[in-house]
Amino acid sequence: MFSRLSQLTRHLSRPLPNYAHTSAAALSSKASRIMTSSSASAAAATADERNSRMIHTAACLIIGDEVLGGKTVDTNSAYMAKFCFKLGMALKRIEVIADDEDEIVEAVKRMSTTYDFVVTSGGIGPTHDDITYQSIAKAFSLPLILHDEAYTKMKKFSKPHPSQPNFSWDVPSAALTAKLRMIELPTDTTRPLDKQVLFPVDDLWVPVACINGNVHVLPGVPRLFERLLDGMKPLLVDRLEDPGKGIHRVLISTPMSESAVAGYLTDLAGRVESKGVKVGSYPRWGKKHNTVTLVGKDREFLESLVAEVEKNVDGKRIQVEGEDDGEGEN
User: How far apart are alpha carbons 224 and 230 in whole angstroms?
Assistant: First the structure.
């Protein structure tokens, strides 16, 4: 079957446009060449090592001209932030870049080297401006290969659009060529295929390509992004230090101004930093209360701080920011 599909792909193949142009990636090329010894060691890690080592840090790369142009509001990075928070992963970076080959190449190579778990969003559809797969393939010098299982799932789960009543999987057409672009994936022929292509959701044909061991390519459509990311959780928990423990956040509402509590919070932050706790202060313009946060993995230690913080900021613990906004009003 693979041979027949390969022949069909070659028959339908067409040169892909070159979207490379001078970009911000070029400006950072000099800086990217300056690496510390630790980052050089990370760069030397193999794809198999990246695919199996413990996950401490994460990054999210949003790809799309429509986001940068204001047409589409990105919600995927926020969803991933909550996903990482619940699992105890430290999401260290979120970037939004254009549908530009140079920028995608630079970003995925840098992120793959720097972070343990990388997720990209967008640019894997059937049209000419969906260039994420080809760009990531270029970044890691990999060929694009039609994925047999993805093709089978695509035929099973996808339905022809009403505007294509005569569509056939067996007859060459522009529509078929477009569909096949979505399952021509960057593939390292020296590694097991099941480590490079994941199907986290049983009733979806959409694959999650895992390139260079830690770059996971997801669609930009929020409904699909969310389902696929959630579906990956069972594949990640064994690589987390404290599976299921996650990160915890305590909210304390205070009627005091930020400047009034700044001294105490600075002192507190210095005392708890060694325990992995971050202290935050957030003004709520036009409201009677501001918010102080305590964030960390040790729930018991966080709880031990609550009474002290409440006393020093004349505040009280809340579950949802703003829940006490109406208090004190007539």
Answer: 10
* pLDDT digit string, tens, across residues 289-304: 999 999 998 999 999 9
Q: What is the DSSP string of 293-320?
A: EEEES-HHHHHHHHHHHHHHTT-EEESS
Task: Output the CA–CA distances (angstroms, integers) from residue 315 to 79, 186, 251, 255, 308, in the order listed.
Answer: 30, 54, 10, 7, 10
pLDDT digits (tens, 9 = 90+) for 46-104: 999 999 999 999 999 999 999 999 999 999 999 999 999 999 999 999 999 999 999 99
Strand 208-211 versus strand 184-186 pairing type: unpaired
Strand 197-198: give its sheet, edge to edge.
90-97, 57-63, 117-121, 215-218, 208-211, 197-198
Provide the 10 A C-beta neighbour count for residue 118. 27
118 Cβ contact partners less than 8 Å away, ≥ 6 residues apart: 58, 59, 60, 61, 108, 111, 112, 214, 215, 216
Q: Which of 161, 246, 153, 159 is nearest to 200 (CA)?
A: 153
Q: What's the token pair of residue 3?
A: 């041979």
Q: Rounded to whole angstroms, how far apart are CA atoms 298 and 303? A: 9
- Give residues with Cβ within 8 angstroms of 101, minimum separation 6: 18, 19, 20, 131, 134, 135, 138
Q: How far apart are CA 116 and CA 55, in angstroms?
A: 5
Alpha-carbon span 38 to 6, nearest angstrom: 42
**Cross-strand partners of 296:** 248
CA distance 184 to 92: 30
Quick one: average pLDDT of 174-195?
96
* Bridge-based pairing state of the strands 117-121 and 57-63: parallel
* CA-based torsion, 86, 241, 231, 177: positive or negative: positive
Alpha-helical segments (H) within 45-173? 47-50, 65-68, 76-87, 101-114, 132-139, 148-157
Residues 6 or more apart in contact with residue 201 via CB below 8 angstroms: 227, 228, 231
Contact 283/245 with Cβ under 8 angstroms? no
What residue type is assigned to position 219 of the chain?
Answer: P
